[in-house]
Amino acid sequence: MASPLDPARDWLAEQIRGRVIGDQPDDKAAAIMTAPGPRWFPADSPVRLVHGDASMFVGGLRALLLQSLHPLAMAGVAQHSDYRSDPWGRLQRTAEFLASTTFGPIPVAEQAVAIVHRVHQRVVGTASDGRPYAANDPHLLRWVHVAEIDSFLTAYQRYGTRPLTPAEADRYVHDVALVARKLGVNHPPTSVADLRGELRDFRDELRSTPEAREAARFLLLEPPLPLPARPPYLLLAAAAVSLMPAWTRWQLRLPLLPVSEAFVVRPAGDAVTRLIRWSLTPPAGVA
Predict the structure, then answer these.
(1) Are 268 and 238 in contact (CB under 8 A)?
(2) Alpha carbon 283 to chain centroid distance?
């Protein structure tokens, strides 16, 4: 039976898909989600559960903030990325890579990895501190992977449909290491304990730079969105900030307000992720 809320659900879903997927979302979904063939991850994999959840909106923002604290990784973004002039294009390419490697047939996933390798070959240069960098450097790839997976898992455990058990969380880190190895990461972490240890090991390499603070300012305060869409986005951004490690806050000039985060930001972030999840879930009886 049709619900009076169905038009609102459809409108919101269209807005989200237009931003995240871009043009021809149905064709892209058919090529990835419903195309025949074996996948890297089975249907019951925690990777599919985490990467298919609305909490990824929070986790993605946290990942970008955390990744920016590595000066060489941030130099590559600042010098080669079009995140300011084409933020939605960058988001769509990232979303397509995650969807392809998580849900797509193996040839689609392998093609997505090959495209990233080709793009990374051009991302070379010198950071502002004089050090050379290359996006295909296994060490930098390792940092990007560790920051990303920690962020996705942290966001899911806070805002996902249900928290993963410790065994499921370990399986998530173990399984997604497959993608890291395909990208060129040597011996990626395969358990939550390994993941946390690697984050600690990177700590001495991380610091704030003007480029990192500018990126954080853009992500949190200058989103290229129409006015009606800004309040929910800002709630997602606040939720992402609330999940950042405390030691990163001063580095990126982010506030640390534990009481407000516990009693305001967390419920608001939960409400927005529930709203996104509702809008992207077809009504009962609709395929």
Answers:
(1) yes
(2) 26
- As a three-state string, the secondary structure of 14-77 is HHHHHHHCCCCHHHHHHHHCCCCCCECCCCCCHHHHHHCCCCHHHHHHHHHHHHCCCHHHHHHH
Rounded Cα distance, 286 and 4, in Å? 15
Structure tokens at 256: 């640390």
Backbone angles phi, psi at 146, to 5 degrees: -60, -45
User: In angstroms, rounded to a whole number, what is the distance separating the alpha carbons of residues 121 and 211?
Assistant: 22
Q: Which helix (H) or strand (E) holds 153?
A: helix 138-159
Q: Cβ(127)–Cβ(154) under 8 Å?
A: no
The whole-number mean pLDDT for each consecutive block of 10 residues of the chain, a chain of 287 residues, reads 72 76 79 92 96 94 95 93 74 91 96 95 93 95 97 97 97 98 96 97 95 90 78 90 92 82 87 89 56
Answer for the pair 101, 40: CB distance below 8 angstroms, yes or no: yes
